[in-house]
Amino acid sequence: MTAFFSVAVLIGSGYAWANFKSLQENLTTTDVIGTEGGGERPKDGSIDILMVGMDSRTDAKGNPLPQHVLDELQAGDETAGGLNTDTLILMHIPNDTGKAVAVSFPRDSYVKIAGGYGRHKINSAYGYAKNDAVAKLQKQGVTNQAQLELDSKKEGARNLIGTIEGLTGVTIDHYAEINLVGFYEITKAVGGVDVCLNEATQDDFSGADFKAGPQTIEGRDALAFVRQRHGLLRGDLDRIVRQQVFMAGLAKKILSAGTLSDPGKLSGLIDALTKSIVLDKDWDVLRFATQMKDLSGGNLQFETIPTGNPELDTPEDGQAIEISESEVKKFFRNLGGAANAGQSTPAVDPATVTVEVRNASGRAGLAGRVLQSLVAKKFVDGGARNADETMASSAVRYGKGGEAAAAAVAEALDGIPTEQDDTVPAGYARVFVGSDYSGPGTQNLTGDRLLNLDGALRHPVGADALRQPTSTQPPITADGVRCVN
Fold first, then answer.
1. In a 3-state reduction of DSSP, which class is residue 344?
2. Which residues, 6+ apart, have CB-to-CB distance to 80 below 8 Å?
3. Is 186 helix (H, G, I), strand (E, B) or coil?
4. 193-197/213-217 β-pairing
5. Non-local CB neighbours of 136 within 8 Å, separated by 6+ positions
6. How far apart (Å, rounded) are the C-alpha atoms in residues 177 and 171?
7. Contacts of 91 by beta carbon, 8 Å cutoff, 6+ apart
8. Model confidence pLDDT, tens digit, residues 325-371
9. Cβ(106)–Cβ(236) under 8 Å?
10. Cβ(240)–Cβ(289) below 8 Å
11. What is the pTM of this model?
12. Regarding beta strands 319-322 and 109-113, do their DSSP bridges make them parallel or antiparallel, or are they unpaired?
């Protein structure tokens, strides 16, 4: 995905212009960016692109990859684990800044999946909807395998977009998807990517076998580098860092002088992109390239969403990474300072809203403390009690017409999600504080210790819980090569 992004930047700068028509005409597109009621999607002060690396055994046209290609990729059998999204990155570009932030989502993040599928690892959002779509299409009489693949993937992508939008509060403007073989061919087309490892590593699952120190990798080795998680100190979190430094290196390679001025490399890169990338059908790539023409390596930075317990036990999915939806939304609101520039919440007088708080966290006394914090902000005391069962995620529920009141309560609680519940009376807001809650009222409560991305211990509650960790390392950008695990 960074390859496509970088190519667009260079096209917008005037480089490779003769090849643009070929790229534009041959890219595969899909209709996955929907609108409510047929109107325009809301503007939020930024361009947000969901970039997805697919663990897929088909090409961009829906045709199965040859077995010898699968063997070279060391991809294994898709049926063993289902179709999942190996890499999820939201490219956030605040309007008129000339800068971009690529935000990674660990594939094992435990979140609410769109489409009514419940809470699962985020990398399954695509697969749940795709599998249901296949069954539905087959009942409708569709038998062509390539058509089944393309149409069901469309539903998978839509459900993934809905999941990311629900988690982040961000409106996705564009969608880009790449498969395994595309990643393989792109890295070979540019002549490899420079990376650096703190120590040697070997892993049979991914095929990784690398020495310590700086090295240039491409093709099969590049795929193994970004897919390895077994044998890494922090598993999926270390893999996220691997992916970020690799994409930074790829962007640096493409943005550097010489790569796209080489006709052979350029032709190979264009060919790899057209065979392996799927874009949403309404993306005006020429306009995007023009907007991004001033972007340079130092203006492309990599981040990761806030995470909690990396070994959270789940009912169905084994161990996953704990995620607080409220902290993720807060992270994106603060990202670039422009994420919600065009949005406003109607003013609400707290004295007109009665709030009841139900403790679904399992932490004694939390509902009362949260209610006290709301009453201190002039909301009306509606009582506190325990919920009927524990919940992983917090929420403010509201009845018909109560959206603005619920939004005001949610904002007072550091931005926890809101959801409609017609059993909530008019003028009321019902707060459920789940095990993810880390906002007002959690001070001086105790809990299990969690790990930051840098390995430091911290507590899961309190004002700084589940936020981006402080690190002495400089941010990952496309300007240099950092040694990683």
1. coil
2. none
3. helix
4. antiparallel
5. none
6. 17
7. 1, 5, 47, 48, 49, 50, 51, 100, 101, 102, 103
8. 778 887 887 775 433 434 444 578 999 999 999 999 988 889 999 99
9. yes
10. no
11. 0.70
12. parallel
Taking a C-beta distance cutoff of 8 angstroms, is the pair 390, 435 a contact? yes
Give the three-state DSSP class for 349.
Answer: coil
pLDDT of residue 418: 86
Secondary structure of residue 155 in the 3-state scheme: helix
Instruction: Report pLDDT digits (tens) over 133-187.
Output: 999 999 999 999 888 988 998 999 999 999 999 888 888 999 988 877 777 788 8
Distance CA 83, CA 73 (A): 16
Query: In whole angstroms, how large is the CA radius of gyration of the chain?
Result: 23
Cβ atoms of 49 and 91 closer than 8 Å: yes
Amino acid at 362: G
Q: Quote the CA–CA distance of 94 and 370 in Å, as a whole number.
A: 34
Q: How far is CA 31 from CA 115, 158, 173, 281, 365, in A?
A: 18, 9, 12, 5, 48
Task: Share the mean pLDDT of the chain.
Answer: 77
Amino acid identity of 332? F
Count the helix, strand and coil residues of the chain and give each as a percent rounded to the nearest 5.
35, 20, 40
The Cα-based distances of 280 to 33, 59, 442, 482 in angstroms read 7, 16, 42, 33
Q: What angle do CA 140, 141, 147 make, to 5 degrees?
A: 100
pLDDT of residue 261: 66
CA quadruple 297, 300, 301, 307: dihedral, nearest 10: -140
| Interatomic CA distance for residues 393 and 119, integer angstroms | 9
**DSSP E strands, 336-439:** 354-359, 380-386, 395-398, 418-420, 428-433
Question: How do residues 42-81 score in pLDDT, each as one tens digit?
Answer: 566 678 989 888 776 666 666 777 776 667 666 554 443 4
Which residue matches tokens 């076998």? 209
**447 neighbors 459 (Cβ within 8 angstroms):** yes
Cα separation, 179 vs 474, in Å, equals: 30
Q: What confidence tens digit (pLDDT) does each residue in 386-438 have?
A: 999 888 888 999 998 898 899 899 888 877 888 888 899 999 999 999 987 87
Instruction: Locate 349 and state its tokens.
Output: 């007088």
